[in-house]
Design brief:
424 residues, alpha/beta, Rossmann fold, 5-stranded mixed β-sheet, binds glutamic acid
Amino acid sequence: MSTQRSSATPVAENAFDIAQKQFDIAADLLHLDANLRDVLRNCKRELTVNFPVKMDDGSIRVFQGYRVHHNIARGPAKGGLRFHPAVTLDEVRALAMWMTWKCAVVGIPFGGAKGGVVCDPKKLSLTELENLTRRFATEISLLIGPDRDIPAPDVNTSPLVMSWIMDTYSMAVGHSVPAVVTGKPLSIGGSEGRLEATARGAVDVIIEAARDRQFPLDGARVILQGFGNAGAPLASFLSQLGCRVIGVSDSSGAIHNPHGIDCARLRLYQRETGTVAGFSMAEPVDPLGMLELPCDILVPAALEGQITHRNADRIKAKMIAEVANGPTTPEADVILGEKGVLVLPDILCNAGGVTVSYFEWVQDLQSFFWDEEEVNARLQRIMVRAYQNVARMAEQHNVNLRTAAHMLAISLVADATRTRGIFP
Ligand code: GLU
């Protein structure tokens, strides 16, 4: 186990180059006007902040963070906030652009944003994490607000982190503003169903795609990279559908059992130990090699840049459900397409999270809260409709689902931009 690499080691490719390449492929097919293309392939606003944080030992450390708005033609900027040592401005730019397309694919009235702080939250105490979050929230208060930019959880951020942001913002303005962030705890205006929303939305898309292609889910073998906010609940939902989860990894290691892994027990084990590595009812495997093991559905649910030209031809899955943002490079897409692997693209497959964030924001603004049944039913309607729209587009233009999703999203955002006109 000691020689294992991280299960989600980002590869050298630049995420923003990848996001722009994906954009160009769709923009070419749409014959998008050259002027509009320039507007949409770049980010509107980029804020970099360097800020001091008081550490437990009395020292002061300076951290760097970013908040980027890609496009706000369709509504306020929306997108998560990640705490990770590998965060870069280009990564945040890419993630912000993907948020713009994601919100358009599911038809919710938001633009795209993302934020990140370069830090390893696992090496911070709870007090240090709170100090960092509150100071970062203050630094980006130039941009955030319930009608301007609404952050949410992403890699290594949680409802607790969101509650500190909500409190910090509310303290500054002198009254409670729950709608300034989503993914909050229920007690301060969070929504029922938000915790599992990304996983639930992914399952809605997987079921629709499987039905379309007569792909049996009962007994399907699943390999899951990432066992966090999205990956862990997804494992439970897929098990309930009769799938057999045979491989799981997180940032500390990977495990494999061809007979199936009891995901409920694995979650308990992970809660106790902080990792899936060392789970006794499975064998340790190399985390990157795990992606290439025989399976039916591969679910990248960690970081971007995991499936590339280096490993795509060795992938054995028939379906890839992208729960992570940006896990597959354009070169890998070509290889997977030639192999006949069905890729459910991130901006469709993981859009359940931001969809229920939208519900949370609407509930906060109205101070009127829905029960979980209503949240899940509305989520399912949106995810199924989005899948059908993307599948129809793919068929009409004879393109893969990623390009179809981008074409759909880009035409909606382009239309909004055209309709509003260029100021002044
Ligand atoms: N971080 C999630 C995503 O990448 C959720 C964003 C949100 O809810 O605003 O889609």
